[in-house]
Amino acid sequence: MASSEQLKALLLSHLAGDDERFLSIALQVAAHEARIGHGKLAVELRDIVEKAKKQAKSAVPISIAKGLKDASGLLYVTTPRVRLSDLVTTDEVKDKLARVIREQRHLGMLKGHGLAPRRRLLLVGPPGTGKTFTASVLAGELGYPLFQVRLDAVITKFMGESSAKLRQVFDAIREVRGVYFFDEFDALGSQRAMPNDVGEARRILNSFLQMIEQDDSNSVIVCATNHAQMLDYALFRRFDDVIQYRLPSNEEIVNLFRSRLKPYVDKDFPWLELAKKAGGLSSAEVTLAALDAIKELLIHEHEAITVAMVESAIEDRRGMSHEMHR
Questions:
Q1: pTM for this one?
Q2: Mean pLDDT for the stretch of residues 263-272
Q3: Is 226 helix (H, G, I), strand (E, B) or coil?
Q4: d(Cα 168, Cα 170) in Å, to the nearest integer?
Q5: Is 272 left (phi over 0), alpha (psi -120 to 50) or beta?
Q6: How far is C-alpha 312 from the geometric centre of its chain's CA atoms?
Q7: More exposed terminus of the chain, fewer Cβ within 10 Å: N or C?
Q8: Calpha distance 178→145 (Å, rounded)
């Protein structure tokens, strides 16, 4: 017979909607039954768990996003398959994300001890440094759908309408477990005392502060901004973690180039030399430069990608970057 602790853990994981934890405890119960000589029961329990796992793998997440999108275009849903290993960033950022993933995977156990896993994240840093990709990574690692919140549809000029639409988003956050991504979050959370502030902007921000404070769902909320200095100070304490992103180091640029270009270059390719030339570009710009070089190779039917081809692609991206920031 399962122990009292195992029974409590089963109930808590069920109430929390943590299927992975529930099945893990069920296997522990099966192992316990096998140890005390209840072999037939142990086999039956393991078969049930294996059947449940197979059904979970084939199940498609049920989403209310389609209905919301049809009504007002508030959410865009995808099912990412990327993993943390696909993200090129600092060890510090990866460690923080790995901690979020671990805590989410042990949600039932933590809640059973009166603890809350990290689930509200603010990502801060320059454009192209991996903030948007991070939301996909979290969804991919956790097996959740990714809901991108369309702030252009949420924020309107009509009094009270934006807060009502924001309420719809938080209703979805409560009803459908997933990763909810607010990109360019400064459009929603700019400081209330700024000179260009208007009454409706204050109402939207106040509504968000109230809704995120009251939200007790099992969904993960990820907000990203390129302009942390514009955010209202009251927002920061609503997040469990504020994660800082920066432009890639030479080592990270090498990893980005190598991951894309290795099949197309000679063995003695000067990776570090190119990384130094690409200094100051974002991760996204480095990746695009690598893809430009591959396209050049394929279109002109070259035998291999040369240093000059990659340097040209780097300079093109640097020129575009300068034009955008003039």
A1: 0.71
A2: 94
A3: coil
A4: 5
A5: alpha
A6: 33
A7: C
A8: 5
- The token pair at 175 is 């009803």
Q: Which CATH class is domain 65-244?
A: alpha beta
Residues of the chain with CATH 3.40.50.300: 65-244
Percentage above 90 pLDDT, the chain:
53
Residue 102 has pLDDT above 60, yes or no: yes
Topology, domain 250-324: Helicase, Ruva Protein; domain 3 (1.10.8)
Mean pLDDT of 206-223: 92
More confidently predicted of 198 and 82: 82
Ranges in the chain annotated CATH 1.10.8.60: 250-324
The per-residue b/e assignment along 7-24, b for 16 or more CB within 10 angstroms, e otherwise, is eebbebbeebebbbbbbb
State how far the Cα of 265 lies from the Cα of 271, in Å rounded to an integer: 10
pLDDT at residue 302 in the model: 92
Q: CA 232 to CA 202: how far, in whole Å?
A: 10
Mean pLDDT (whole number) for 67-79: 67
Find all residues with CB under 8 Å of 162, minimum gap 6, and list them. Answer: 154, 155, 156, 200, 203, 204, 207
Sequence-ordered strand ranges (E) for the chain: 75-78, 120-124, 146-149, 179-182, 220-225, 241-244
Run of H or E including 193: none
Distances (CA, A) of 60 to 57, 137, 159, 169, 237: 8, 18, 38, 21, 35
What is the C-alpha to C-alpha distance for residues 296 and 304, in angstroms, rounded to an integer? 10
Instruction: Please report the DSSP string for 68-101 in residue order.
Output: HHHHH--EEEE-----GGG----HHHHHHHHHHH
